[in-house]
Fold:
Amino acid sequence: MDEYISYLAQPADIGGRRAKNRFSTLPMEANDSEPDGAPSEKTIERYRRLSAGGWGVVYVEALASCERGRCRPRQLMLSKSNLDSFKRLSEAIRAASDPPPFIIYQINHGGRYSLNPLIAYRSEILDPTWDMPAGAATASTAELDEAAEATAEAVKLCAAAGADAADLKCCHGYLAAELFRPSNNRDDKFGRSLENRLRFMDALISAGMDAARGDGLIFGSRISIQERFPGGIGSSGPDGTMFDFSGVAPLLERLKAAGAAFVCETMGVPYYNPAATRPQAGQPGLEAALAAHHGLAGWVKSFNPAFAVIGAGYTPLKADCVERAAKNIIAGDVDIIGFGRQSFADPDTAVKLLSGDVARVNWCAACRKNNCSTLLRAKAPAGCAVHDPAFRAELKKLKEK
Structure:
């Protein structure tokens, strides 16, 4: 492992700024905010611990852009009224590690997965994945205009909140991703044509550019490069099942032209095909799933070598992740290695691996039922139920109900 860890210990460039190493957390919601969406003391302590755990990038979980965009009662939500609380969060992250990590805030609107769903269009594939209200109507043009405006404003707040960068989230079936996919059959300015399907993301990119000019904010996007269902992002058309890079290229081209600094690769919609988003150790076809993640990251890097590419698909490898990650870095397919569930399982993963203390890493067990996701979807506080007794108790209470 020693011959490979040196590659992960190297600093990485993100838009002209420096991440101290190649380890990044990935955005993992924990549903532990204050009622108004402000970080609670529990939230702040959670991120302080991640910072102290040696990560080069601390990627803050999905921050709802408005009340209508919240997916859970205690989801974090960034607004002008609670801005000072996010400044405290950023300060706590920086104070916990010297040098401090690079901080990314992920901005999101939950769309169809919000507590009060905002459904861009009806889908035979996706409607059954969530508890849709009977007879729920699709969003009006005015509602989508309002959502785009609110989400763009949240992007602009990231610098004032103390983040180094904003992630314009376009993945996992949330609103920006839903509107972008080829199966979006709306008849208004948000549907059908590519220009219309990217209108929501264009508003966020414009906000990112404004914040970059005015506040020096770096921005990028986490994208489901391939959703893996007919008409999903990356498919060949509204009913297409073949993956076609040309379907994703227009968004990457817009990000490149706007000066975006990073892309975080992901796949799938966890509400529909979770094995694509978060491959499980022991699942059939695991190696193919990991290779798909790593290959898509490599394609994004080849599309624009200037992007700092944050790759996924490393958690199931456990200790073998170091060798695989180093080889992908050497090959030029990825710049930074992202860990989602593993950052829940052991916030100190990065510092342990960098110091050669691999034997003490608490590896994600890749629970067959994804217990951390089970907690989150049940709107309970979320974390690792295997390694943390507090979340084990939460899971037990949930099962008893």
Observations:
- The two ends are 45 Å apart (CA to CA).
- The first helix runs from residue 2 to 9.
- The longest strand covers residues 218-226.
- The chain has two domains: 2-361, 367-401.
